[in-house]
Write a structure and sequence with these properties.
Layout (H helix, E strand, L loop, with lengths): L2 E6 L6 H13 L2 E7 L11 H11 L4 E5 L3 H7 L4 E6 L2 H17 L5 E6 L9 H9 L10 H15 L1
Parallel strand pairs: 1-2, 1-4, 2-3, 4-5
The protein binds adenosine-5'-diphosphate.
The site of adenosine-5'-diphosphate has 18 residues, from α1, β4 and α5.
């Protein structure tokens, strides 16, 4: 039984993330999604609880946890064999290579990182791009699930009030 951890900010979850989850679920027995607080990402739309709730609404059969700090520590805590990450570009690659080294070293070589590639229509999608388009009142239906778009609209209305 191979359980893997898919960590990320997921602010919000996009169809790019969902494509990676779909691919991972064909390869592994169980996926746990870890919604991480990344202090480097300043402009948050949803808080951790909201992001987790959005993902739980989409996937009733996938475990969703939250965390701060190193993904490797969360992977060890939940007895995951590896960390899943998605690759979009060379910029992602540079970042992921140092992250994977950190996760491998701090877990005493117990946690490996497996990178997957989103299908081509999702390869350029990012949460920040979706938020930017949304703020400009552009159509984001190609990039997020309808239930995510609905939550974004609620959020916008509650922020305007
Ligand atoms: P971002 O805010 O950049 O969209 P996250 O921190 O939420 O990213 O991403 C979690 C993981 O999912 C990272 O490994 C990221 O590279 C990957 N990912 C995000 N969007 C995509 C995509 N469209 N295609 C492939 N991987 C993706």
């Amino acid at each position: 039984m191979t359980r893997v951890l898919y960590p990320g900010s997921f602010d919000p979850i996009t169809k790019g993330h969902m494509n990676i989850i779909e691919q991972a679920s064909e390869l592994f027995d169980e996926i746990i999604i870890a919604v991480m607080l990344n202090p480097l990402k300043k402009s948050q739309l949803f808080n951790l609880e909201e992001r987790m709730e959005i993902i739980r609404d989409l996937y009733q059969n996938i475990g969703v946890v939250s965390g701060t700090g190193l993904a490797a520590d969360i992977a060890l805590l939940y007895e995951c064999k590896a960390i899943i990450r998605g690759l979009r570009s060379l910029r992602d690659f540079d970042y992921e290579i140092s992250l994977q080294q950190l996760n491998r070293e701090t877990s005493h070589n117990k946690i490996n990182t497996i990178c997957l590639f989103a299908d081509k229509e999702y390869q350029f999608v990012s949460s920040s791009m979706v938020k930017e388009l949304f703020n400009l009142n552009k159509d984001i239906s190609k990039y997020v699930h309808p239930s995510v778009e609905k939550k974004m609209l609620y959020k916008k209305r509650s922020l305007v009030k």
